[in-house]
Amino acid sequence: MDETDTHNTETQPIRLVLRLDFPPAHRLGRGKIELLEHIRETGSISAAGRAMDMSYRRAWLLVDALNQMFEEPAVEPQRGGKQGGGAQLTPFGELLVTRFRQMEQKATEAMQADIEWLEAKRKPEAGETPE
Description:
The chain is an alpha+beta fold and 131 residues long. Helices cover 53% and strands 12% of the residues. The protein has a domain at 21-98: Orthogonal Bundle (Arc Repressor Mutant, subunit A), CATH 1.10.10. It has helices at residues 3-7, 30-42, 45-51, 56-69, 91-110, 112-121, and strands spanning 19-22, 26-29, 75-78, 86-89. Strands 1-2 form a two-stranded antiparallel sheet. Strands 3-4 form a two-stranded antiparallel sheet. It is elongated.
């Protein structure tokens, strides 16, 4: 979408974005969870990275970080085969995606009244007319 397209669309609603910090250096947020979802769909780290417009190296580094964050890996490589292997989520990886999405939903529901209040007080974007 180019700059002119943004002026022709409605203001995006406010949304809560969940990110968990694991001191001292790890983070878990929607980007890593989305990458896991793409790996589930494609069976490939490289294809998951392409779906998110990131390099294989960046995708692999994120998967490696995820696998280092927890006692169990979230993704395991699949060796061999006609396509030369791939990757799949482990049972822990599946549970991680499910639990993270549930946490997002709970947080959004818990803060819905506050989000609605902020939305009502929000200044319209330049060029928009208030209702």
